[in-house]
Amino acid sequence: MVYLTRKEHFNAAHKLFNPKWSKEENESVFGPCANENWHGHNYDLYVTVKGVPDENTGFVYDAKKLGELIRTKIIDKLDHKNLNLDVAFLEGQLCSTENLAIAIWKQLQPLLPANATLHCIKLYETPRIYVEYFGE
Amino acid sequence: MVYLTRKEHFNAAHKLFNPKWSKEENESVFGPCANENWHGHNYDLYVTVKGVPDENTGFVYDAKKLGELIRTKIIDKLDHKNLNLDVAFLEGQLCSTENLAIAIWKQLQPLLPANATLHCIKLYETPRIYVEYFGE
Amino acid sequence: MVYLTRKEHFNAAHKLFNPKWSKEENESVFGPCANENWHGHNYDLYVTVKGVPDENTGFVYDAKKLGELIRTKIIDKLDHKNLNLDVAFLEGQLCSTENLAIAIWKQLQPLLPANATLHCIKLYETPRIYVEYFGE
Amino acid sequence: MVYLTRKEHFNAAHKLFNPKWSKEENESVFGPCANENWHGHNYDLYVTVKGVPDENTGFVYDAKKLGELIRTKIIDKLDHKNLNLDVAFLEGQLCSTENLAIAIWKQLQPLLPANATLHCIKLYETPRIYVEYFGE
Amino acid sequence: MVYLTRKEHFNAAHKLFNPKWSKEENESVFGPCANENWHGHNYDLYVTVKGVPDENTGFVYDAKKLGELIRTKIIDKLDHKNLNLDVAFLEGQLCSTENLAIAIWKQLQPLLPANATLHCIKLYETPRIYVEYFGE
Amino acid sequence: MVYLTRKEHFNAAHKLFNPKWSKEENESVFGPCANENWHGHNYDLYVTVKGVPDENTGFVYDAKKLGELIRTKIIDKLDHKNLNLDVAFLEGQLCSTENLAIAIWKQLQPLLPANATLHCIKLYETPRIYVEYFGE
User: Fold this and answer.
1) ipTM of the complex
2) Domain spans of chain D?
3) Is B33 a catalytic residue?
4) Residue F33 known to be catalytic
5) Chain A: residue whose CA lies nearest to B125
6) Cα E118–chain centre separation
7) Which class is domain B2-10+39-133?
């Protein structure tokens, strides 16, 4: 079993905001992250798949194809977007990095073949804050 | 003459948008950067001052004080903000990284002492794109 | 279950030195790290907590609060300090990065809530050497 | 149990090429990586060992000795080499990063003492692609 | 005047080898870099242009277009190639990083408009070695 | 004219302390950097030389030789040392990063050949603070 990781990135706007709360409650909990005019990040996304290297290629999965899969299924839907307003697969969810990582997992997991199963979504919000989700 | 550089960072939303143009013209020129719902970045800001090290401290300028100056005068006004809507010193300007660097220069330059003059504002929009402004 | 990691840093002096050994024995085992006049490092500290994201915030733990906890309980006691002389919670211990990571775990673990348990202390001594401790 | 990681690096040429296939088949599967005139990478290698810190040193393993072991047993055989032509321990294998990580594990694992067992070989082919192998 | 920099990268094989010298002389001067079976690198390329930001866009030059120019004119000709064998614009030249930077300058300089003149080619051979060329 | 830069690093202890001042004055000016028990850093040192590439090698200067020069003349004297106590060429100087960069320039400048003159000493004290000295 070998783990293969591919890094991609996207830039997006968002705010942390719970629609069940007042503006004051949101500001009290989320601080400047609740700014109603939005803020944004350069997100770094690491996708890890695991499997046994193929006998004919030496690959768990073709890293070039993995990059294309991530870009067409995830990056194209998130890059230069507003995560609260523009992304169908995030609709109705709080825009935390935790929830974003889980949502990316749910998008990618069904698209990977049995011999290269999804192992981890690692998502940097800033160079000093990141989350990891392993599917359970 | 020694050059001292201090790095700080901020996260912000913006869009590239010329109000003299139609939505279509803006999209044609700025592409996804014109998304009317905004996008955002983790900006890295490098401020360089130059001078002769002080005889009693060995400092061109106290790096701790330089950090505080940048944070109170620049970062506090940009971090978790919308650059098009929330920042008085950017009002009426196109929100390119070039213009942002020039605007930061204009804010900081008058605040530095004669023996530690501002030399360069270097601003990363993404890890792969940055601008530098030397005041002329 | 989602894992949230926050990076902080501190600068400190130390030496590797076993008081049960002679100066020669220490130099033989620890080499230049035993320099009696000390040396030092810029340490990077990554603290990982794990839990289920809260329904109302989307957070495993507020990353801002995690940063404040790390800074007040760990960084303030280590930054610009001599690890062999100035730190109560390291007293009587050999100053290896391994031992330092375990000691940081012991300080932080009791301070975290049940829904965001400590998962890993990762500590870089240099950009090329780091240790990880998972509490067992 | 503490995990200690040491980073080393090497520069090498290789191509992805399955000798059982025609030139066209290789190009179809491996794309530009099959260039018969080779291409190359700056590989970053992270070796992680695990164990209980020694009572007299505080070390799982002396990081300096770990570096020397990696350099003499691995780096000296890979650095400035052609991975397909010059490396005895890669002979007859497809030159994927996955296979290279497994081969490095097989070289290093028998050389480590019982109290600092090999835990992971992590190998960056580019800053955006890496693999990990845990020995099983 | 503002300076805009765009980073791109490529992976390539090469060797340092002066055809006027014997194999022994080459090995004596270039050491392992003269390995006749080649070695390779992940090159990082930084291209800096300078100019006055355009009144209607705020751009010195569109960073997206600059990236496309670098990729089509430079990266496509160097990536996954052998610098000694596969690159028309390097023919007959010694494959040092210095010469490569000058050759990239000569390719790009005529393609840039008068209002965004080429200022610097900065080329990393490894994370610890880079060269800069300013056109004179 | 091409500029060649080589990065090296060292770890050292120091304190900021002016012997003409009282302990209180030192603490007032230098804050925690004046800790009498020392603190330390992982310093990154970038040395830039400039010249015309040699016709027979394509080199401004052999990067390998430049690395050896920096290591034997600078790194060996600073690494795992106390900058205030252990370094002959820093004796009697305040231990600021500015002064350290100037002192390194003075050590290296006479050792470089006429065709590869020293251009810049760039010294990182932390990942967020660095100084540059160009010899005048």
Assistant:
1) 0.97
2) 2-10+39-133
3) yes
4) yes
5) A42
6) 13
7) alpha beta
